[in-house]
Amino acid sequence: MKLQAVSNRKLYLQIADQIRDQITAGAVEKGRQLPSERDLATSLGVSRPTVREALIALEVAGLVEVRVGVGAFVRGPQKPEHALPEQGHSPLEVMSVRRMLEPEAAALAAQNIAPEGTARLAEILRRMQAETAQDMWSSESDRSLHMTIAEGSGNSMLREVLDILWNSRSEEVDTRFHQHLAAIPQVRQHILADHDRIVVAIVQGNGEAARQAMAAHLDFVAAAMLNSWE
Predict the structure, then answer these.
(1) What is the arithmetic mean of pLDDT over 157-176?
(2) Dihedral sign from CA coordinates of 166, 172, 173, 177
(3) Residue 207 scores a pLDDT above 90
(4) What is the 3-state secondary structure (H, E, C) of the chain?
(5) In 10 A of CB 140, how many CB atoms?
(6) pLDDT reported for residue 10
(7) Could you give the CA distance from residue 52 to residue 75 in angstroms, rounded to a whole number?
(8) Domain at 12-74, CATH from 3.40.50.300, 3.30.559.30, 3.40.630.30, 1.10.10.10
(9) Which of 120, 92, 99, 121 is closest to 198 using CA atoms?
(10) CB-hemisphere CA count at 13 Å for 96?
(11) What percent of the chain has pLDDT over 90?
(12) Considering only the top CATH level, what class is 91-227?
């Protein structure tokens, strides 16, 4: 594939544009595997995480099929319905901001959450346990748990900011990114255990334990976003 070198890190959609153009030009035939993330990153002069986000955007557009642990395969030339997603929030950047804010929200919730809030956390956790037992993963349950914690923090501005971040999580590229992660059984089990530790710390009123449990959870998800595809 002939790709234009990029001198600095740009938005992943700009990288997706270049790869899409090569697919449209017939540089890679339908059914063929694209070069590895490492090779694409080297050709484009960007990081592998940026390439990964670009591949997910191409998958959302129907241009490639991403097979976790294998690679990305061309599905066919571009069609009118194969437009790249217009929303450009980076899933990795969203996660970076969540790692800054959500541990503190958990610590505050441990001190401020109302009884109905702890009851709701217990209810959501039971639902997540049932879903995991059935090899299922629900983005709605995930959001409900985290936003109940944000609400329980007692800080309305923090809750509003986290609501914005979780709205970004509902964008197509971010949603597909997490669907790939959730398809890995070990990741689902680890996340459930993380959520259990967070809820226990909040219910016990232990702010520092809640902070550490949330930070460890988000560190794990961030690492999984980078490493679980290898």
Answers:
(1) 92
(2) positive
(3) yes
(4) CCCCCCCCCCCHHHHHHHHHHHHHCCCCCCCCECCCHHHHHHHHCCCHHHHHHHHHHHHHCCCEEEECCCEEEECCCCCCCCCCCCCCCCHHHHHHHHHHHHHHHHHHHHHHCCHHHHHHHHHHHHHHHHHHHCCCCCHHHHHHHHHHHHHHCCCHHHHHHHHHHHHHHCCHHHHHHHHHHHCCHHHHHHHHHHHHHHHHHHHCCCHHHHHHHHHHHHHHHHHHHHHCCC
(5) 10
(6) 44
(7) 17
(8) 1.10.10.10
(9) 121
(10) 7
(11) 52
(12) mainly alpha
What pTM was computed for the model?
0.84
- Do residues 51 and 41 make contact, with C-beta atoms less than 8 angstroms apart? yes
- Name the average pLDDT for the chain: 88
Please tell me the least confidently modeled range out of 93-102, 132-141, 193-202.
Answer: 132-141
Q: Which residue type does 120 have?
A: R
The model's pLDDT over 178-189, given as tens digits with 9 standing for 90+, comes to: 888 888 889 999
Top pLDDT among 193 and 69 is at 193
Parse the chain into domains and list their residue ranges.
Answer: 12-74, 91-227
